[in-house]
Amino acid sequence: MDFSEDEIQRYSRHILLREVGGTGQAKLKAARVLVIGAGGLGSPLLLYLAAAGIGTIGVVDDDRVELSNLQRQVAHTTDRIGVPKVESAARAAAALNPEVRVEAHALRLAPGNALDLVSRYDIVCDGTDNFATRFLVADACVLAKRTLVSAAVLRFEGQLSVFKPHQGGPCYRCLYPEPPPPGVVPTCSEAGVLGAVTGVMGTLQATEVLKEILGIGESLSGQLLVWDALAARFRTIRLRPDPSCALCGPNARIKDLTAHGVPAGSACAV
Ligand SMILES: [Zn+2]
Fold this sequence. Notes:
Radius of gyration: 18 Å
Bound molecules: zinc ion
Order of helices and strands: HHHEHEHEHEHEEHHHEE
Distance between the termini: 37 Å
Number of strands: 8
Mean pLDDT: 95
Largest sheet: 8 strands, mixed
Helix content: 25-40%
Number of helices: 10
Low-confidence stretches: none
């Protein structure tokens, strides 16, 4: 793939890395990454993917920018309150790197559109804040054989993993077989979140996306990274495929998305 003089300058610190180089940068340019949720996780994720030169970034969100988002959703700005988040996110990405194409999907992910949308990208990133959407994304990714880079935050904690059972390793349902009953796990809008924690987790998520595309380092597939910001401690928990998993096991029962309802409430991008 040919790069212009400007692109060579823009990506020079990448190209200097032996693990990236011109070949790796060309892989990033050819990649299509889907970001689900343009919120606290999606903001840094999208900005770093755009800065890194990911050729095509899809963004899914059906919300508009609100004042209470700006404590952590750093892709949005005060003068864009009321603007659809996908439009605000596209403007932020274009301002940072006009070489990148952003595909804005101003819609709520639903059983009727999830599989088609996910199939159009190489890698999918979940940055949503409700279990209905998380399970829908997880199921769609396994059915479409797409790598899922999944991050979650609450209060002062973050979690991150990569799920790609089509290449070995567990899926999201090997870790969480079913959504918790409503009300058991609070959302960020109920329990709060330290803004910078979403920034760190979204940036770690971007790093794992880049590693997966470049095929470098140790994948987080089969590992759950947990960060306790108050204790300033990271730990890694080993995850194994569950042979009785309803989604990826040998006797998998989930073959389509018909069991899912349309996720209620806000699309909730953290
Ligand atoms: Zn599984």
